[in-house]
Amino acid sequence: MNTLRALFDTGAPLVAVSFDDRDVARAAEEAGAARVDVAEIRVDRFADTGTAHVLRQVEAFKGFPTLATIRSRAEGGFWQGSDEERLDLFRAVAPHVDAVDVELSSRAILDDVIATAREHDALAVVSFHDFDRTPPLDDLRATARDARAAGADVVKISTVARSRDDLKRLCAVLLEGDDLIVIGMGEVGTASRILFPALGSKITYTFLGAAPTSGQLDFPETSRLMRLFHPDYGRRES
Ligand SMILES: O=C1C[C@@](O)(C(=O)O)C[C@@H](O)[C@@H]1O
C-alpha cells in the first residue's frame, strides 16, 4: 500500500524532512522519534550515488512515507551524472518509495519517470523551481497545467518570494487546484511554509539539525506551528 497516498487522502497537511546519506541510520532514528510525516530522500545530495548504496539508504527509511528526489542542477540540485543515469536510479528506487519528485523541465526523462512511478504505485510529484523570482501568475498557471498534462499526481511549485505580491501570486495558483505543493522560498517566503498548508498545500519541507536553506524552519518549530494553526495536523495517529 502507498502510505503517502493514504496520508494525502486524509486531507491533513504533512511535514517533510529532507535527508542526504550522512549517518542515515541515526537520521532515520531521529526522524522516527520526532514523528516526521514524510522523509524526502535527496539522492542528488548523496556523496555516493551508486545504485546499491542508494537502495541501502532508502531501506533505512522503511516504515516512513518516502519521497525520492534526484534534483537536476538546472533546478538548484546537485545531480552530477547524465539524464540516463538519473532515469536508471529513478527506476531502481521507484519500487521502494511512496513518491518520486522530478522537474517539469527534465523533459528528456519526465515521461519515463512518471511511467516508472505508475508501474510501482508511486506518486509522481512534478516540480518547478525558480531561485531568482516568482514568475507572473499566467506562467505559474501554465506550469501547473503542463505538469498535470504530463501526468503529475502532485504539482510542486517552489519559487523565491521577494515581496507580498510574489506571495499573493503563489497563493493564487495554490487556490486553483487541490493537487499542489506551493512554497515561497527565501525570507519573505517563510510565512508560506506555515500558511499555505492551511490553504491546501500538501507538504511543507523542513530540516532536522542541518543548516536551514531557502527560508525553511526546522522540524520542531514547523511542527509546533502546524499544531497551533492546523487542527487536523498530527491528529491521525499511527
Ligand atoms: O523542492 C523542494 C523545496 C525545497 O527547496 C524548499 O525550499 O523547501 C526543499 C527541497 O528539499 C525540496 O525538494
From TrEMBL:
Zinc-finger as UniProt keyword: no
UniProt: 3-dehydroquinate binding residues: 18, 40-42, 71, 193, 216
Reactions performed catalytically: 3-dehydroquinate = 3-dehydroshikimate + H2O
Record SUPFAM superfamilies: Aldolase
Pfam families recorded: DHquinase_I
InterPro entries per record: Aldolase_TIM (IPR013785), DHquinase_I (IPR001381), Type-I_3-dehydroquinase (IPR050146)
Swiss-Prot/TrEMBL keywords: Amino-acid biosynthesis, Aromatic amino acid biosynthesis, Lyase, Schiff base
EC number, as in UniProt: 4.2.1.10
Enzyme class: lyase
Stored CDD domains: DHQase_I
Catalytic residues of the enzyme: 129 (proton donor/acceptor), 156 (schiff-base intermediate with substrate)
Pathway: Metabolic intermediate biosynthesis; chorismate biosynthesis; chorismate from D-erythrose 4-phosphate and phosphoenolpyruvate: step 3/7
Keyword Amino-acid biosynthesis: yes
Membrane-spanning residues: none
Domain of life per record: Bacteria
Subunit structure: Homodimer.
Family: Belongs to the type-I 3-dehydroquinase family.
HAMAP family assigned: AroD (MF_00214)
Function: Involved in the third step of the chorismate pathway, which leads to the biosynthesis of aromatic amino acids. Catalyzes the cis-dehydration of 3-dehydroquinate (DHQ) and introduces the first double bond of the aromatic ring to yield 3-dehydroshikimate.
Name this polypeptide is given: 3-dehydroquinate dehydratase
